[in-house]
Write a structure and sequence with these properties.
alpha+beta; OB fold (Dihydrolipoamide Acetyltransferase, E2P); 2 domains
Length: 242
């Protein structure tokens, strides 16, 4: 007696789905703005060393803020939030503190009773008045400063002497003091210190000078004949660069 054989479908055992490596380790991609925010936060501390470095904190603050907004928008799909938040806080703190220090230095550096002058705007750019049959005449705006107590910043013109200088030539900018060439007559002021122990020459360092301003020709170093002078009561490295 023959028996019929009914074939049964063979069901292949299915292996459990393999978890992706990213899920296995809980990995989430980190946007490039997150580490950049953290780095800018660290670099913003440079604002304490120089005024030109202060904007790094502002840039870091903005970049980190943008990064935080984007990370919140994707609701956990991306990592790096702690980097962005850390960068945001560091940039905010360092920018606020360093900017405040520089602003306070600018506000308090001028002694009471002295008028702050900008070498370029208040002296150099004024030039002279030329009239027929007459030599150079001081600009009325500059002449009005004669005998007044002023506070001005510039750079020391180099000479053979570097220590304990009681008199020196103050020039308008760094190029004139460090890269040779004689400054223009309206770009230099002869400073004679009436008090103190003198100052040392440092190349490329901005100086703050306070004293009584005069419009009068005098004898300067290297045969130069400046027509402006200051009887100085203050001479020090500038606290700010502006």
């Amino acid at each position: 007696m023959s028996q019929s054989i009914v074939s049964q479908p063979v069901v292949e055992a299915q292996s459990p789905p393999v978890q992706s490596r990213s899920n296995e380790f809980g990995y989430r991609p980190v946007p490039i703005l997150a580490p950049i925010s953290f780095l800018l936060g660290l670099l913003s501390a440079l604002g304490f060393l120089g005024l030109l470095m202060v904007p790094i904190g502002l840039v870091g603050f903005v970049v980190a803020g943008i990064c935080i907004v984007r990370l919140r928008k994707f609701r956990g799909e991306y990592g790096g939030m702690w980097l962005a938040v850390s960068g945001f806080l560091m940039s905010l703190i360092f920018f606020s503190a360093s900017a405040g220090i520089w602003a306070n230095g600018y506000r308090t550096e001028v002694p009471e009773g002295f008028r702050r002058l900008n070498f370029t705007e208040d002296i150099s750019n004024k030039g002279f008045i030329f009239e027929k049959g007459k030599t150079d005449i001081f600009n009325p705006d500059v002449k009005a400063l004669d005998g007044k107590q002023v506070f001005i910043k510039g750079y020391m013109y180099p000479t053979n002497e570097t220590r304990g200088l009681k008199s020196f030539l103050l020039v308008k900018d760094n190029a004139q003091c460090c890269f040779g060439g004689n400054p223009k007559i309206n770009d230099m002021i002869m400073v004679t210190l009436k008090t103190g122990r003198g100052v040392d020459y440092h190349q490329g360092i901005m100086m703050s000078v306070g004293g009584v301003f005069h419009c009068q020709k005098s004898s300067g170093p290297a045969g130069l004949t400046p027509v402006y002078s200051i009887d100085g009561t203050l001479a020090e490295n500038s606290r700010t660069m502006f």
